[in-house]
Amino acid sequence: MGDTTNHVKKVSISKFFIYLVLAIASFLSIFPLYWMFVMATNHNSVINKVPPAILPGKELVTNFTNVLNTIDFFGALGNTLIVAVVTTVGVLFLCSLAGFAFAKFEFKGKNILFLLVLMTMTIPPQLGLIPQFIIISKLNWLNDLKAIIVPGLIDAFGIFWMRQYISSNVPDELVDAARIDGCSNFRIYWNVAIPVIIPAFATLAIIKFMYVWNDFLWPLIVLRDQSSFTIQIALRGLIDNYVRDNGMILSGTFWATVPLIVVFLLLNKLFIQSLTEGAVKS
């Protein structure tokens, strides 16, 4: 009886420390967002005080109004939404198609091609800026959202992720049975693979959507006209060389972050499912 009691106490103590660590990690993860919200609701004079304010203020509407008067916030937000949604949908389709081919088809040079795809992940993106810019210029796509969308439609990590997930979760027997029933390769992909890999779609969608939404360097290079600015480029216009209104800057940054939070919350369940399925199966 005593051994059982001691065991229960040890389990309770271990659970307490686990929950404590999780609570601290959650606080550290959420605090930057909360701090940004606090700064977005306070006047610049309050932000610069020592110690700074830790509670929300009453300047949320005023600060956001200043953002709207300084930049075309909603226009840039709309451009970014178009780019992020179209690029993400394109990546999901093309990368899952390529991943399905690498996972379930046998063809000459498959392993070499897949190795080449993986090797592109080791190349810094900055090395491709000049040749990409030359191509975009010759296509007359400068100041056009196509200059951001088209180069982002293929993602090496997306192909790798889809290939690994399909290999583990789409049985070969299911694919063979579909072939016996007379299904074409694309129909096997569409009717057999896609229903199984929805969680992988969610994970890749979150990663790609966040990357495109936060991208700054490439849009800065190819977008020159304010009407085509994405949100990250537009937010740069909030920074004045002489007077820095931190409340206004953080207000714009906070509202530009809200769509990312919404997307993550919508796909959160499928995201967790995609990460835990392999562990459950093993």
UniProtKB/TrEMBL annotation:
Fetch the InterPro entries from UniProt: MetI-like, MetI-like_sf
Q: How does it sit in the membrane?
A: Multi-pass membrane protein
Q: Which CDD domains match?
A: TM_PBP2 (cd06261)
Example GO biological process: transmembrane transport
Q: What is its main location?
A: membrane
Question: ABC transmembrane type-1 domain location, by residue?
Answer: 77-267
Record bears the keyword Oxidoreductase: no
Question: Where does this polypeptide localize?
Answer: Cell membrane
> Per the UniProt record, which residue ranges are transmembrane?
16-37, 73-100, 112-136, 148-167, 188-213, 248-267
Q: Does the keyword Oxidoreductase apply?
A: no
Keywords of this protein's UniProt record, alphabetized?
Answer: Cell membrane, Membrane, Transmembrane, Transmembrane helix, Transport
Please give the GO cellular component terms listed in this UniProt entry. Answer: plasma membrane
Family per similarity comment: Belongs to the binding-protein-dependent transport system permease family.
What is this protein identified as?
Sugar ABC transporter permease
User: What is the scientific name of the source organism?
Assistant: Lederbergia galactosidilytica
